């Protein structure tokens, strides 16, 4: 395991350095995770208790993840770039009992809100800084006092292991429940879709605060026993190429946004000086996930990196890769591929009521080849989510007579290859992050100048989409560049840069339904010059 190659940090959240960390053998994480499991027991955190992480990619994160699972507690990772509002909301919804974070992140995002989280009993601070932070304890001191052997209690395959939050278009984020049996799917799909083999050097660039970084950045490669490369630094084209070359990476799993950023740094025309400065001959497979992969990126990978990019599809709810371009098959650029072995997928037709045509657990009519429809999956794979925490109604609504309706629109060609079209709802995918418009709108409307807000995703050639907010101001206030900058800053402080809007437009006449809901569909149509569709529910219509 190579935890901190390239530009590194001496501690989670500390300033980047330039000296690579040494290679870490599997035995050392085994001892440290045992210590952490024992430390949790000392604190009284046990089976089923929720342990949250708010960390960057540092060794302590991996210790926490695996030690929590050993202790049969439930691990819930949070993206460290989240703002205070999303962090507080998820800690509360997830019944957080323990949180592992740094002093800087705790001060900035949790400390002032601790009073609203009575169930959060333990905050473990990684690195120095517990002085002046009441109610916190030192992560290092707890580990140093704990034994480095731990007997893992008996665990049922159906016991809750992971809690991943995913955004919805309205209401609160959804806590998708995953169980210990999910590891079976992580192992199998890493072999089928990512072609992991003994001796591989594997790099997944996804942040472990998201499901990809957890399932395929930590769990899947470790159960395969391969070498894992972890880079703490932010994206930098030259450093990424250097990591691929110097670490002799064989399998690289990344996001379409990252590939598009590399394309900007390395155009297809010209001598390709940047990638040719490094030896990338060890690379055997490049795969991507998190958002649609444009065909140009697939071809660019072949021309510039020497390998096409293998796209695949899955969701937080599925827990593992469902549809993929196999390593052994030719790629159809733009397609997400075909279902993995054991995955039953289809595109059912819908009736007049908009529901999928399913009777007695059987899909009675499917879309013709190349017709768009909602992707449906037959439940039963080991990593399938088992519920939305505290929200059975929301969970039940995701199923129709024995089929899981993904909410993603796809088309299937005559040969059974799937092509992603878009979300059936309003969730925005920006740089691989799922962003709920309601969450952004709610934060903006907390500003005293804002009366109403509507949020959409505007297409962007690099990020896929960027968040754009339309804001209606309170009486007596007018738009200005200063107010626009103030609102952008306010949203970034509350939500974090990954979730906050990049653009704000002022509109005193936001389109609303008769019930008062801002019509994001109409905002999107106006912004992109698309047909407005049925306006009969619009406020003021006949």
TrEMBL record:
InterPro entries: AMP-bd_C, AMP-bd_C_sf, AMP-binding_CS, AMP-dep_synth/lig_dom, ANL_N_sf
PROSITE patterns cross-referenced by the UniProt entry: AMP_BINDING
Protein name: acetate--CoA ligase
SUPFAM superfamilies, A to Z: Acetyl-CoA synthetase-like
Region (Disordered): 1-24
Composition bias type Basic residues, residue spans: 1-10
The enzyme's E.C. designation: 6.2.1.1
Gene Ontology MF annotations: acetate-CoA ligase activity
Enzyme class: ligase
Keywords for the protein's UniProt record, in alphabetical order: Acetylation, ATP-binding, Ligase, Nucleotide-binding
Taxonomy of the source species: Bacteria, Bacillati, Actinomycetota, Actinomycetes, Kitasatosporales
Domain AMP-binding enzyme C-terminal: 439-517
AMP-dependent synthetase/ligase domain segment(s): 23-389
A Pfam entry, by short name: AMP-binding_C
């Amino acid at each position: 395991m190579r935890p901190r190659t390239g530009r590194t940090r001496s501690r989670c959240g500390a300033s980047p350095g330039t000296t690579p960390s040494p290679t870490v053998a599997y035995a050392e994480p085994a001892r440290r995770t045992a210590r952490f499991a024992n430390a949790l027991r000392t604190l009284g955190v046990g089976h089923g208790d929720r342990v949250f992480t708010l960390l960057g990619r540092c060794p302590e994160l991996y210790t926490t993840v695996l030690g929590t699972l050993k202790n049969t507690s439930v691990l819930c990772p949070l993206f460290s770039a989240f703002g205070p509002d999303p962090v507080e909301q998820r800690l509360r919804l997830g019944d957080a009992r323990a949180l592992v974070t740094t002093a800087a992140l705790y001060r900035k995002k949790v400390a002032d809100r601790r009073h609203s989280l009575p169930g959060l009993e333990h905050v473990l601070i990684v690195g120095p800084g517990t002085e002046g932070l009441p109610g916190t304890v030192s992560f290092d001191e707890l580990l140093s006092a704990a034994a480095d052997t731990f007997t893992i209690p008996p665990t049922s395959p159906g016991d809750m292991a992971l809690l991943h939050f995913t955004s919805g278009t309205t209401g609160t984020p959804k806590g998708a429940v995953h169980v210990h049996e999910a590891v079976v799917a992580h192992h199998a799909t890493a072999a089928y879709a990512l072609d992991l083999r003994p001796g591989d050097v594997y790099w997944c660039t996804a942040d472990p605060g998201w499901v990809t970084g957890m399932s395929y950045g930590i769990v899947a490669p470790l159960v395969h026993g391969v070498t894992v490369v972890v880079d703490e630094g932010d994206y930098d084209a030259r450093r990424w190429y250097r990591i691929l070359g110097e670490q002799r990476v064989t399998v690289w799993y990344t996001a379409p946004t990252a590939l598009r950023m590399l394309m900007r740094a390395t155009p297809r025309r010209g001598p390709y000086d940047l990638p040719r400065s490094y030896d990338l001959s060890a690379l055997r497979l490049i795969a991507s996930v998190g958002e649609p992969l444009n065909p140009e990126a697939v071809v660019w990978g072949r021309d510039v990196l020497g390998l096409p990019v293998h796209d695949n599809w899955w969701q937080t709810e599925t827990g593992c890769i469902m549809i993929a371009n196999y390593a052994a098959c030719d790629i159809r650029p733009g397609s997400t591929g075909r279902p993995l072995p054991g995955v039953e997928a289809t595109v059912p037709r819908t009736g007049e009521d908009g529901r999928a045509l399913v009777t007695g657990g059987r899909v009675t009519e499917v879309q013709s080849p190349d017709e768009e429809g909602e992707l449906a999956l037959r439940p039963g794979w080991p990593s399938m989510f088992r519920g939305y925490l505290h929200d059975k109604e929301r969970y039940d609504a995701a199923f129709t007579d024995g089929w899981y309706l993904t909410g993603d629109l796809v088309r299937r060609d005559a040969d059974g290859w799937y092509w992603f079209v878009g979300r059936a709802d309003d969730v925005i995918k920006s740089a691989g992050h799922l962003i709920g418009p309601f969450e952004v709108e709610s934060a903006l409307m907390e500003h005293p100048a804002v009366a109403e807000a509507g949020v959409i995703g505007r297409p962007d050639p690099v990020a896929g989409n960027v968040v754009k907010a339309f804001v209606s101001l309170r009486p007596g206030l007018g738009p200005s560049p200063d107010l626009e900058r103030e609102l952008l800053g306010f949203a970034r402080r509350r939500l974090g840069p990954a979730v906050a809007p990049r653009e704000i437009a002022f509109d005193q006449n936001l389109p609303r339904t008769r019930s008062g809901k801002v019509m994001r569909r109409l905002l999107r149509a106006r912004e992109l010059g698309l047909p407005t569709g049925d306006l009969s529910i619009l406020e003021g219509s006949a």
